[in-house]
Amino acid sequence: QVQLVESGGGLAQAGGSLRLSCRASGSAFPFGDMSWYRQTPGKQRDLVATIKRHGATNYQDSVQDRFTVTRDNALDTIYLEMNSLKPEDTAVYYCNAILLGREYWGQGTQVTVSS
User: Fold this and answer.
1) pLDDT, position 10
2) What pLDDT is attached to residue 68?
3) Which of 35, 83, 101, 103 would bridge with 50, disulfide CB 3.0–4.6 Å?
4) What is the pLDDT of residue 33?
5) Whole-angstrom Cα distance, residue 31 to residue 75?
6) What share of the chain is helix, strand, coil (3-state, %, to 5)?
7) pLDDT of residue 53
8) What distance in Å separates the CA atoms of residue 37 and residue 56, rounded to the nearest whole number?
9) Do 78 and 69 form a contact (C-beta atoms < 8 A)?
10) Which residues are within 8 A (CB) of 79 and not within 5 positions of it... i.e. 6 or more apart?
């Protein structure tokens, strides 16, 4: 059974940093694209960053130059280094992985940035 487990959320002050991790498990096949999304109450879930298996990345404009997504294929884990955090980064952050054409989600981790 495929599972994605996020960790590393919490409370930070504006201008601070947090690092999220997401470990995927339960597959005999390699995971494809892996991504971070975020969602605030009453709004749609938005893509934050994507990293392909070979390392190419793509970011939402609002986090470009502040967030960095990395990946360790040996551990089936992705990370999101978040710097220069802003109150508007407050959200539940979800990990997403594509495997054999199917999409899988983690349970989410709360990030709260105080001003």
Assistant:
1) 97
2) 98
3) 35
4) 97
5) 11
6) 5, 55, 40
7) 95
8) 17
9) yes
10) 19, 20, 21, 22, 69, 70, 71, 72
Give the pLDDT means over successive 10-residue stretches in the chain (115 positions).
96 98 94 97 97 97 97 97 98 97 97 97
Residue with tokens 């980064």: 89
| DSSP, res 26 | S
Structural contact between residues 89 and 9, judged by C-beta atoms closer than 8 angstroms:
no
Name the residue with tokens 């504006």: 14
User: What residues have CB less than 8 Å from 69, skipping those under 6 apart?
Assistant: 36, 49, 50, 51, 57, 59, 78, 79, 80, 81
* pLDDT value at residue 58: 97
Beta bridge partners of 99: 102
Distance CA 91, CA 108 (A): 10
Report the 10 Å Cβ neighbour count for 36: 27
Residue 89 DSSP symbol:
G
C-alpha to C-alpha distance for 22 and 7, rounded to whole angstroms? 6
